[in-house]
Amino acid sequence: MSDAFGTCVALSGGVGGAKLALGLSKNMAPEHLNVIVNTGDDFEHLGLTICPDLDTLTYTLAGLNNTETGWGRMGETWTFMAALKALGGESWFQLGDGDLATHVERTRRLAAGESLSTVTAALTAQLGIKVAITPMSDDPVRTCVETADGALAFQHYFVRDQCAPIVTGFEFRGVAAARPSPAALRALADPALGAVVICPSNPFISIDPVLAVPGLRAAIRTAAAPVIAVSPIVGGRAIKGPTAKMMAELGVRQSAVSVAQHYQGLIDGFVLDSEDEAASDEIRALGLDVLTTNTVMQSLEDRVSLAADVLEFAAVLRSGSK
Predict the structure, then answer these.
(1) How many other CB atoms sit within 10 Å of the CB of residue 285?
(2) CB count, 10 Å around CB of 293?
C-alpha cells in the first residue's frame, strides 16, 4: 500500500488485534499507524499497574511476543513467580521476569506523575517501535464482568476463573469520568486519515470499552475515513478467547452477522471470513459494504495479507467505487 493512502487508526484489544496491527504495520509506513488500545483490562496487582492489552501490542510490534502462549514475552523465565508462590503470595496471574520489568517501570513512572500515554510512548520508543500505541484514556477504566454468581473484576473472570462463570453483562467502571487520550483524538481528526479499522477483537470486552470513553465514538463517526470492522467470529467460532461463549450466554446468535449488527451505525464496511460468505447478503442488508477474505491469521503472511485486503477495501470505500 502506497504511503499516498495516508494514515490509519486501528482499535484493538489484545492478541487478535495485535496480529492485525502487525500486518498493518507491514503494509504502510509504521509511523502512519496509530493503534488505540483497550485499557479496560488493566488492573492493580501486587502493587503494580498491569496493562495486558497495551503490553501484548508492545511485545508483538517489538518482535518480543511469545507466539506459543499468545501472551507475554518470548524466552520468559519465572524465578519471581516461583519465589512468590513459595512465600504464599498470589500466583494466579503469571508475571514473567522480563514482563515484570515492564510493570515495575510503568508503575514507577505513573507514581512520578507521568500519564499512561507518556509512559507507553516512552517504553515503545525504547523498544524501537515506530507505530503509535495509544491507550484509549489516561484515566482509569476497569471492566467488570457481571455473572450469574455476581460481579467480577475482569482479570478475576478471565484469568483466575478461566472464563467459567456465566456472563450476564458488563460494566466499565470509571468510564463516565474518563477523557479520551489526546493522541487518539488527534489521530482520528487527521485530514490524511485513510481508514479506521476495528480489529478482530472481542466486541464486548475489548472494543466496547474504547467506544464507551466519552468523545471517542463521536470522533470515529466524524473521522474523514471509512470505518471497517473485521469479524472475530468465523463459522460461529471465536478465533481467540471467550467471544462466542459470551454471545451464547447473552442470548446473541454466534455469528459474524451479530458482530456486524453490534457495530451498526458506526461502521461503513465489514470484513468476514470466506467460510462465512453466505452471510454477506444479510450483512449488506444492514447497509454495509462487505469484503470476504481469509481472516484467520495463523502466520505472518496471513497477517500481512489480511491487512493489505483491509486497506484496499478502505481505499475502495473512500473513493466511492463499489
Answers:
(1) 10
(2) 17
DSSP-derived letter for residue 14 is S
- Please state, in angstroms and as integers, the Cα–Cα distance from residue 293 to each residue in 26, 208, 264, 279, 303, following that order: 18, 25, 20, 13, 12
Over residues 80-94, the pLDDT tens digits come to 999 999 999 999 999
* Phi, psi of 315, deg, nearest 5: -65, -40
3-state helix, strand and coil shares in percent for the chain, rounded to the nearest 5: 45, 20, 35
C-alpha R_g of the chain: 19
Do residues 321 and 38 lie in contact, with contact meaning Cβ atoms separated by under 8 Å?
no
- For residues 41 and 43, give the distance between their C-alpha atoms in angstroms, rounded to a whole number: 7
Interatomic CA distance for residues 95 and 101, integer angstroms = 10
DSSP element (H, E) containing 144: strand 142-147
Q: How many residues does the chain have?
A: 322
Cβ contacts of 241 within 8 Å, gap of 6 or more: 15, 16, 163, 202, 232
* Each residue's pLDDT tens digit, 234-250: 988 887 789 999 999 99
Longest distance between any two alpha carbons in the chain, whole Å: 64
- What's the pTM value of the predicted model, to 2 decimals? 0.95
What letter represents residue 174's amino acid? G
Q: Is 198 helix (H, G, I), strand (E, B) or coil?
A: strand
Q: What does the pLDDT look like over 9-49, one tens digit per residue?
A: 999 999 999 999 999 999 999 999 999 999 999 999 999 99
Q: Which three cell numbers stand for residue 205?
A: 470486552
Residue 5 phi/psi, 5-degree rounding, is -60, -30
Place of cell 458506526: 266
The residue among 267, 13, 307 whose CA lies nearest residue 135 is: 13
CA distance 171 to 214: 15
For every residue of 164-203, DSSP letters joined together read -SPEEEEEEETGGG--B-HHHHHHHT-TTEEEEEE-SS-I
